[in-house]
Design goal:
By secondary structure, the protein is α/β, with parallel strands linked by helices. About 55% of the residues lie in helices and about 15% in strands.
Length: about 260
């Protein structure tokens, strides 16, 4: 069987909000804590959360740049990233100072938190664009979203005429997917099951999307064989995975050092 595999390296994805998204959101919310509260301990907690979010975001972004840059240009690519990042620091400090003098401390902090919140949606939209570009959905084609979660991408594709099947191990997630499909008034086949043992006959899907799931499975090789089994001849498997420097990969390594299985838990 001819099998096309397309990969999308996600240097910053966790299985809930997505690594960079969650870290940027943590920064934004920490800044907003300073606006909404007062007193030493509120500011102390807010500062600690900002520091934690910053410590998690920047290594992830550097790793993301390094992952996609050719090794001959990796140094210059990271340098360009750091130039624009540090220039942003300077500009942000100037703008924050002007706003603080004109409007007060709280509006200045708020102005710093809102762009971070906006950035999370922009990063999320960019990821969706990349995945959809590789998928190139075709009406009446059957596409399996393995590890579909709450079904948001599956419902969006179903609205375009794609015959979507959402598979997830969690019954509660599938319930959310069905509710999302009902609200959008689109058909969606939702099935509960494990990727290592798919409840589908062979050669039933034109395409399979799995983002990011394999790195959280105890037997990813078995899962890949199962995903290939349900693909039609000439079908494509679209895989999105964590980058080597993501915080979730660090968590998996620590679990392995403790002797725990590297699964989703």
């Amino acid at each position: 069987m001819a099998l096309e595999i397309r990969g999308h390296a996600q240097s910053s994805e966790d299985p809930t909000l997505g690594g960079t998204l969650s870290r940027m959101l943590l920064q934004a919310l920490a800044l907003l804590v300073g606006v909404g509260g007062s007193g030493f301990w509120v500011w102390f907690v807010g500062s600690a959360l900002v520091g934690a979010g910053t410590a998690l975001v920047y290594p992830t972004l550097l790793a993301a740049v390094a992952d996609v840059a050719h090794r001959a240009r990796r140094g210059s690519a990271v340098g360009v990233h750091r130039l624009w990042r540090d220039s942003g620091y300077a500009l942000d400090a100037i703008v924050a100072g002007i706003l603080a003098d004109a409007l007060g401390i709280a509006p200045a902090i708020l102005a710093g938190g809102l762009p971070a919140l906006l950035s999370t949606s922009l990063v999320w939209e960019d990821e969706r664009r990349v995945i959809r570009g590789m998928l190139n959905p075709v009406a009446n084609h059957r596409v399996l979203d393995a590890g579909a979660g709450d079904g948001r991408p599956a419902v969006e594709l179903s609205a375009e005429g794609v015959r979507m099947t959402a598979l997830d191990l969690s019954a509660s997630m599938l319930g959310l997917a069905r509710e999302r499909a009902r609200s959008a008034e689109v058909p969606l086949e939702a099935s509960q099951g494990e990727i290592e043992s798919l409840p589908f006959p062979p050669a039933t899907s034109h395409q399979v999307v799995v983002v990011p799931v394999l790195c959280f499975l105890p037997e990813p090789h078995t899962a890949l064989l199962e995903l290939a089994r349900v693909l039609k001849p000439g079908g494509s498997l679209i895989v999105g995975e964590l980058g080597r420097w993501s915080a979730w990969n660090l968590r998996r390594w620590l679990r392995g050092r403790r002797g725990d299985p590297p699964g989703r838990g």
